[in-house]
Amino acid sequence: MTEAxxxxxxxxxxxxxxxxxxxxxxxxxxxxxxAIALTFGVFQGVMPLIGWWIGAVAFAYVEAVDHWIAxxxxxxxxxxxxxxxxxxxxxxxxxxGRALLLAGVATSIDALAAGITLPTLAVAPLIAAALxxxxxxxxxxxxxxxxxxxGDRWGKWAERAGGVILIALGCKILAEHMxxx
Length: 181
Hints:
By secondary structure, the protein is an all-alpha fold. Helix content is 81%, strand content 0%.
């Protein structure tokens, strides 16, 4: 369960960064903040299930190397987040309507890829997906509020922290499957 919580926190970081910027730049009211948090939470919760389904279809073909795939995907996503380019376009404009839906998809592509790794966790995929969606909802809502209060100072650092967590999870999965832990 700890791995699933860490994955949820890491995947929520790009949505957190975009929501923080939205709060700082555009100061959405309570309904706007709720819409951002709900959209990000739903997309982050659904996308891992899609990734899990893709992984389940292909599992028979990749079972012998699933730990390498999990390591590679999580490390790639982590390095991408460390670069600080996730969510820049979404944060640049006010998120309402179609732009909000597109931002929900854009900030959850990493959750789709990470969904392929759900069978490597010691928790049911549905529970992991619900946890990912719930954590993202809470963190995005808090980020909009925090952005309104504190400004746009922490978005990049949140993204980078998420990147480090994803890389660490990938390394842990690889180490466990190789018998190093």
